[in-house]
């Protein structure tokens, strides 16, 4: 029973830690920038051109918000520009957005390290900390930007730095420039036009359902994409890591299986004389085999349930109190834009999958007592 108990506990702990890290990765992609879904012009994702934009429309917003799973939408205009400060120049990603809804998704206001967050109709900029360091910019310094606007119109402007943020993504931290949406539309001469509508939903578990409904609702020239479609490399990374985790759990299950089998074999060997006496006084072998089968199942059930009952509060506590990393491991995590913690998941599947798997292993091993009872030689058993 102890081997089954620890098998469920260890496999649940390993799975919870693995799934917790995946949830945090997805959380970073969804909440720090892309949102759960985005609406684009049907040609935009291939071209990434400011010419493949669509007109901002309240009717479109209302159509999306009519979906009960949708929480809110964020209009954005995104493109690239060349930014300079005195003799230093760098390519930047310019994001025009509405400050309050953007903060509701990405919590940008909490990441402001210097200066202040953008306000409505703000003429200033919010720039990444890495970009500010490279261009040697401080609060109220002027950033000059040039680019190509809508339909080839030249775009140029000078803007004060309103705030400096530390973005969760190290790459974006070196190149991101946030502008108030109307200000950005004026810079690119793309009045009332958007490259995307970021769609945030109330429950990420309802993503597929929401995506299916919105695809039925939205027609050409619009297209809608989930975060998985926009970040296939993240999905691939999670799937490959999950495959490695399956191999590790398979090894653990093999060890657990042999541990349970050894326990059952020892139990049968120690009681061989007892079984011989029972057969000798008239008990039929199939009845003895049935008793041993149910006895093994009962041991497996008690072990799996006890492992489940201990793992649920333990992992719930760990989910509320993630394990902090220190030293070099913490620095590596921060460099990749992750918080330096080991996170845990409390999804129901984390628990019942492990309990069910270990119980099924026990169910297979329970065939051994049946085989043993039917093949037992009575004379040898009585002299055991």
Automatic annotation (TrEMBL):
TM spans (from-to): 250-270, 291-315, 351-371
Domain of life: Bacteria
Membrane topology per record: Multi-pass membrane protein
Domain called MacB-like periplasmic core: residue spans: 1-215
Cell membrane among keywords: yes
Coiled-coil regions listed: none
Entries under InterPro entries matching the protein: ABC3_permease_C, Lipoprotein-release_system, MacB_PCD
Family statement: Belongs to the ABC-4 integral membrane protein family. LolC/E subfamily.
The protein, known as: ABC3 transporter permease protein domain-containing protein
Native source organism of the sequence: Sunxiuqinia dokdonensis
Lineage of source species: Bacteria, Pseudomonadati, Bacteroidota, Bacteroidia, Marinilabiliales
């Amino acid at each position: 029973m102890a081997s089954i108990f620890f098998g469920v506990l260890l496999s649940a702990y390993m799975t919870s830690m693995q799934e917790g890290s995946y949830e945090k990765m997805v959380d970073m992609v969804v909440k720090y920038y892309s949102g759960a879904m985005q609406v684009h012009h049907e040609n935009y994702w291939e071209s990434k051109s400011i010419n493949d934009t669509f007109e901002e429309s309240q009717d479109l917003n209302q159509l999306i918000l009519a979906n009960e799973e949708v929480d809110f939408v964020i209009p954005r205009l995104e493109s690239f520009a060349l930014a300079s400060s005195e003799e230093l120049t760098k390519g930047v990603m310019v994001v025009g957005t509405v400050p309050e809804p953007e903060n509701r998704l990405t919590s940008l206001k909490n990441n402001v390290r210097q200066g202040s967050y953008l306000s409505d109709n703000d003429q200033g900029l919010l720039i990444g900390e890495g970009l500010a360091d490279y261009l040697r910019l401080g609060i109220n310094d002027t950033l000059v930007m040039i680019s190509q606007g809508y339909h080839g119109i030249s775009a140029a402007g000078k803007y004060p730095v309103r705030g400096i943020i530390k973005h969760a993504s190290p790459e974006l931290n070196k190149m991101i420039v946030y502008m108030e949406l109307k200000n950005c539309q004026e810079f690119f001469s793309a009045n009332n036009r958007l490259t995307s509508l970021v769609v945030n939903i109330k429950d990420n578990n309802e993503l597929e359902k929401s995506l299916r409904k919105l695809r039925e609702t939205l027609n050409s020239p619009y297209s809608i994409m989930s975060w998985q479609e926009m970040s296939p490399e993240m999905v691939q990374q999670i799937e490959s890591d999950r495959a490695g985790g399956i191999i590790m759990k398979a090894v653990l299950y093999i060890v657990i299986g042999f541990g349970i089998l050894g326990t059952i074999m020892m139990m049968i060997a120690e009681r061989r004389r007892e079984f011989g006496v029972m057969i000798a006084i008239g008990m039929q072998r199939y009845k003895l085999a049935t008793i041993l089968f149910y006895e093994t199942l009962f041991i497996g059930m008690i072990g799996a349930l006890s492992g489940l009952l201990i793992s649920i509060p333990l992992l719930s506590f760990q989910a509320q109190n993630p394990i902090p990393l220190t030293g070099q491991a913490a620095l590596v995590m921060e460099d990749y834009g992750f918080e330096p913690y080991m996170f845990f998941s409390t999804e129901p599947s984390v628990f019942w999958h492990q309990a069910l798997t270990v119980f099924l292993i026990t169910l297979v091993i329970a065939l051994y007592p049946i085989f043993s009872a039917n093949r037992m030689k009575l004379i040898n058993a009585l002299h055991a």
